[in-house]
Amino acid sequence: MQLAYNLAQKGCGGVNPNPLVGAVIVKNDRIIGEGYHEIYGGPHAEVNAFRSAKESVEGATIYVTLEPCSHYGKTPPCAQAIVDNKIARVVIGMLDPNPLVSGRGVKLLQEHGIDVESDFLSAELSQMNRVFLKFIQCKKPYVVMKTAMTLDGKIASRTGDSRWVSNEQSRARVHELRNELIGIMVGVDTVIADDPILTTRLAGNKKGRNPIRIVVDTQARIPLDSKILNTANDAKTFVAVTSAAKQNKLDEINALGNEVLIIKEKDGRVDLNQLMQVLGEKGIDGILLEGGATLNYAALEAQIIDEVHAYIAPKIIGGKDAKTPVGGEGIQVMKDAVNLQNIRFENIADDILIIGDVVY
Fold it and tell me: What task does this protein carry out (predicted)?
């Protein structure tokens, strides 16, 4: 199962909004086939494992990280493929919460006399597929807030200079996240200040996937000559506005190959919860939030953030007017602070990365 887990991770960045799945076929204590779900719409892990087998799989055991599907979607059901290939035993890492599967795969296998065992490495597999699990259950994207700050909690100097707070290795790690998550979200102030392109650049010239770009822009202030609006061939861009935006500006944004999303207003801003619902309906299962202080606070206040990645650099820059990762009005008393749990630490050269799950 550990090998199947390792295989599943190879699909990272290619299968969204499907889950990461790996499969290993064992016969007479020998591995005779292995595979993973490589790309959305392509064969599932079990089918790839069958195709890789160099001998008959009849009577073998297949280890698969997620309950085999039993419904027709982009591909035929994997549970039926297991039956057709005369597998004798199936070991499942975790059951699939997808309402279209949810125990039906196991039932089909058992009805055909196949021995089924489940719940192996379920905690690790749930963590690996946390984006899929939230999306399939809530129909909203899993949101990761990423920020990089100095030791004294600043994301830029008092003049606004932020190149670079974190080191090269940390920045490379962020590009891996961009490759893994299907969407990336910023506020319009970030676009105005930095004019970012928000594409993926992986180390070693590896081919990556550019995320769908989402700009939160209540009044459509985004400059028409910004890189984001003029690189539609590189990646799709959604600009989320409210009815306060002028229609002629929206028409110009659309004319450049982008898509405007008109979202209801809440407290004079884009309603982030409705935006998440709309993005979920468009198949966006995960978002990397690279917002500034204002959007980060609004996202925490709206309780849309699931996970935080905080890069801390061993630098001190001071400045009472230097920007911090989270702005807004802030809390009044410490007991109202947003807490993190399941904390993980990583040393990335001389930076420290803290990862935690948000508790509301």
Answer: Converts 2,5-diamino-6-(ribosylamino)-4(3h)-pyrimidinone 5'-phosphate into 5-amino-6-(ribosylamino)-2,4(1h,3h)-pyrimidinedione 5'-phosphate.
